[in-house]
Write a structure and sequence with these properties.
Blueprint (H helix, E strand, L loop, with lengths): L1 E2 L2 E3 L1 H14 L5 H11 L1 E3 L5
Antiparallel strand pairs: 1-2, 2-3
Helix pairs in contact: 1-2
Length: 48
């Protein structure tokens, strides 16, 4: 998935799904979920 200058890696989305479920019970885990989602964004190189 592309967002302008950024490319999204779906592996991070899959890894972060369990964190989202846990965050329903433990709100502090939601921060880890956001970090995991954010790590999925990578700047595209100009030669892509």
């Amino acid at each position: 998935m592309n967002f302008g200058k950024y490319k999204y890696d779906y592996n991070y989305l899959l890894m972060s799904t369990p964190l989202l479920v846990v965050s329903l019970f433990v709100p502090s885990v939601f921060v880890a979920f956001l970090v995991c989602i954010f790590c999925g964004f990578e700047k595209k190189n100009k030669n892509d």
